[in-house]
Amino acid sequence: MLALVRALIDPLQREFDHRISSSHLQEAQSLLTRMEHATGLEPEDAAIVVTMLATTDRIAGRPEVGLARLGALESVRPSPADRAPVHFHVGLMHLELGKATMALESFDAARSEAYASGDDNLVALAEELSLIASYVQLTSQSPAWTGARRSPLTGSSLPLGAALDTVDVRELRHLLEAPADYSAPGMTALSSLEATLRARAYSVLGLGHSALGELDILAAKLPPGLPTPALRRWLLLSRVEALLVLGRADEVLEILDDATPSGPETPHATLHRAHALVLLGQGDMATTLMHDLVPQIRGKSVRHAIRAQATLHRALLGLGDVEGANAALVDALHKAAQTGLLLPFFRHGRAWVAQLLDAAVPFTRDPAVGRLVRSMHETLRDLGGAPDAIALTPREQDVLALLAGPGTIGQVAEALGVTQNTIKSQLRGLYRKLGAASRDDALLTARAAGLLT
């Protein structure tokens, strides 16, 4: 009977909801109602029946009714196999109701659960619907977009997002080879989404200045009246990611303070704030933020959960709480091993990831964690770049060689017979070439690229 219902209402078989006839919809509802009240229905079948009933509600133009059904189903904690489709259908309901942000959270949860259970089809569907929800979210923020001519989706955002999730360095570099064209008339939300994804890719590759440049190009092409306050905050969060890579934590906090509207901060902004506080040595404040955030995001976004625990690990380690830091690290590693998500770790920069992998060694007895750690080591090697990818001047080579020693900036300047300000200026250029935010990061990149022995 379930197979018959699927044949009647499954949008994948019917292509689009509007091609489902009213007679088929009524027949499906009748069958599902009979099954819902049948005795002896197995729990997994009951979950499927409720999900299908919610689908018929959505097709019939009653998404709020379907959402209530699924909310009741979620409250009884369905089995792991059912959680992904339930989250996915909740996302569809929110999308129908115009609640794009809530839809994004649901699709993110669906993708994570589907990835963990090996349902590649649902992973792909959740990723595509997340893109649509992002489009709806941004277009709803500005009247200027509603009447603007929209160019078709190029398709580059989906592979870029997938490569970011797993930090596929070769694919990211390939996708960034061709510059994006933001000059087409009628700026679209999808163009903004692509620009921020490209900026994030540059940040992950350690090229914070390139990330800022990408966002500047986008800002220059926005039509009059944009960005709106809501969109401005969204773009500023993307800029914050690049500034974190560059180690400019003070600027990050200033931007977050200015951009935060009245009311609670978004999880994304809170994670950025905690990251900045850690960079400034204020681990106690970062720890408090993460302890408050973790219960709020539990079960909603595995990306946020991994990043929160990774940030908590870093903060607690700086405070000398090794036991607490290890507990947070283990939780983050297990979640990442289940989902394949590496991006939350690499937001902290390659130098810190190298330290994290050293701390993870005792936990690699778990085969899944061991595979994850090996994968992260491979990613670190890929991020180092080829030896001929970075060309340094003779003076930069001298500075780099002295930087690898124990000397301070003052001692390096004295050895080269120049002022400290001159060395600082040369270091900025050197860091920019290496895509580094700190001395440790620069040395790690230089060694990986064969510039130091």
Automatic annotation (TrEMBL):
Q: Which InterPro entries match?
A: Sig_transdc_resp-reg_C-effctor, TPR-like_helical_dom_sf, Tscrpt_reg_LuxR_C, WH-like_DNA-bd_sf
A single Gene Ontology biological process assigned to it is: regulation of DNA-templated transcription
For this UniProt record, the keywords arranged alphabetically read as follows: DNA-binding, Transcription, Transcription regulation
- Domain of life of the organism in this record? Bacteria
Q: Which GO terms describe its molecular function?
A: DNA binding
Q: Which Gene3D superfamilies match?
A: Tetratricopeptide repeat domain (1.25.40.10), Winged helix-like DNA-binding domain superfamily/Winged helix DNA-binding domain (1.10.10.10)
Q: Ranges for the HTH luxR-type domain?
A: 385-450
> What is the official name of this protein in its record?
LuxR family transcriptional regulator
Q: Which organism is it from?
A: Microbacterium sorbitolivorans
